[in-house]
Write a structure and sequence with these properties.
Helices cover 16% and strands 48% of the residues. By secondary structure, it is α+β, with helices and mostly antiparallel strands. The strands form 2 sheets. The protein has a 12-stranded antiparallel barrel with strand order 1-2-3-5-6-7-8-11-12-16-17-18. Strands 9, 10, 13, 14 and 15 form a 5-stranded antiparallel β-sheet that branches. The longest helix is centred in the first third of the chain and has 47 residues, at 28-74. The relative contact order is 0.11.
């Protein structure tokens, strides 16, 4: 009897359960799919937020380190290398499958580069005002020998020739102001005061043998006053990351606020009795500046174009009535290298070249007969192109975080260039 009951129990256990046959088996993958997707999305959002917070904290740390170094340099304390943060703790995690080696966040290179102050530099920080007193001196000496006649053997000249010697000294004191609207946009203005002294000697010699001192003209002219005011705007195109150099777009506008060469008083022969302090024409100069830091050197270059706009001058000079003058425009370029000697001192070397196309003038000759002047038909005259090349040398010394002394020397490399120009700039950061 016991065996029968046991067999019956086993048979009942082997029969299918109707309740379990009616309920389908639950699929854990299907039921948890949406939940897992939501969790992954939440984790990714949290990681992005953490990455943003870490980047902001790291930027703040960099700014504090730079401020500490500036104070140490200003106090004359030898600065030590600040230990970098632990990149293993601050490196942002990658999305998706994790890898063994995580690429650190790319940081832009330092923007304190050693270049010529007026040829290439980074922008003024947002909200910062910089005042830059500038002192400049230029000297130009030109000697010209003009011969009109014939030449026979043994260098015997028969005819008329002139000896023309001119000297020009220009001293300029300027107040320059620059302001950073944003970290990428800067505006500035330059207001110069000019003292200029011109001297020239003209000796026309009539045939051989020459008449000693015949017609010699020895004149000088001085002038002082405000020069041409310059306006500047700059926009930083790239920030030096991703293997790109620093690229900055510039535009400079020159206003003819100084005394024009066509406005200064002249004598009966057309010689100026007062030296002009300005160019006399509006000018616009767009350009692009390139900076490529390659520690400890910095390569830099400037490529631009000078647009000079003509105007009606309506001025009589000697026996000519000048109606219209269109000054020459042309391209310009600068290329050089800056070398950082230490944390305070840097040297710069560069070559700059301007190509100015010919100046075209509309002139009407004036003839006087029996005391009555007669104005002739207009004639268009053109001068030759000018090639102005200069070698530049500069030294920069950082006094403190707010003040830097920049000294630049230019030496003329072509006949059309000024022989010597030296410039001293001392910018002060007011905030």
């Amino acid at each position: 009897m016991r065996g029968f009951l046991t067999g019956a129990a086993l048979l009942v256990a082997m029969l299918p359960n109707p309740a379990s046959a009616q309920a389908p088996a639950a699929n854990p993958e299907t039921s948890d799919f949406d939940s897992l997707q939501a969790q992954i999305a939440a984790e990714r959002s949290a990681l992005k937020e953490q990455r943003r917070v870490l980047d902001a904290q790291e930027q703040r740390l960099i700014e504090l380190e730079e401020a500490l170094l500036d104070k140490m340099r200003a106090a004359g304390v030898q600065s030590a290398q600040v230990a970098p943060p632990d990149r293993a703790d601050t490196a942002p995690p990658t999305e998706g499958v994790s890898s063994v080696g995580v690429k650190p966040v790319e940081r832009p290179p330092a923007q304190e580069v050693a270049v010529l102050a007026d040829r290439g530099s980074v922008l003024t920080k947002a909200g910062r005002l910089t005042i830059e007193p500038t002192f400049e001196y230029g000297r130009a000496d030109r000697n010209r020998f003009v011969f009109r006649g014939i030449e026979i053997p043994q260098s015997v000249l028969v005819g008329i020739f002139d000896i023309n010697e001119s000297r020009q000294d220009v001293l300029t004191v300027s107040a320059v102001g620059r302001f950073g609207l944003t970290d990428r946009i800067e505006i500035g203005v330059k207001v110069p005061w000019v003292y200029r002294e011109d001297a020239f000697v003209l000796i026309p010699l009539v045939q051989n043998p020459p008449q000693s001192g015949a017609g010699t003209i020895n004149r000088s002219a001085k002038g002082s006053g405000i020069g041409d005011v310059e306006f500047l705007a700059r926009y930083q195109l790239t920030d030096g990351t991703g293997g790109w150099p620093f690229l900055t777009a510039n535009v400079q506008v020159i206003a003819p606020t100084g005394s024009s060469p066509f406005e200064v008083p002249r004598d009966a022969l057309g010689n100026a009795t007062e030296a002009a302090t300005g160019f006399g024409f509006w000018g616009v100069s767009p350009s692009v500046t390139v900076l490529m830091p390659t520690d400890p050197a910095t390569l830099f270059g400037v490529l631009g174009y000078n647009f000079n706009f003509g105007k009606d001058v309506d001025t009589r000079i000697s026996d000519a009535q000048i109606d219209h003058v269109d000054p020459g425009s042309g391209p310009n370029m600068t290329a050089g290298i800056g070398l950082a000697l230490n944390e305070r001192t840097s040297l710069s070397f560069a070559y700059a070249h301007n190509w100015l196309f010919s100046t075209k003038s509309t002139v009407r000759p004036i003839t006087v007969r029996n005391g009555i002047p007669t104005i002739g038909d207009p004639i268009v005259t053109s001068t030759r192109d000018l090639q102005v090349g200069r070698f530049l040398f500069g030294i920069s010394y950082r006094v403190s975080s707010r003040t830097t002394i920049n000294w630049t020397v230019e030496l003329g490399a072509t006949d059309d260039a000024t022989d010597l120009r030296t410039t001293l700039r001392i910018p002060f950061n007011l905030n």
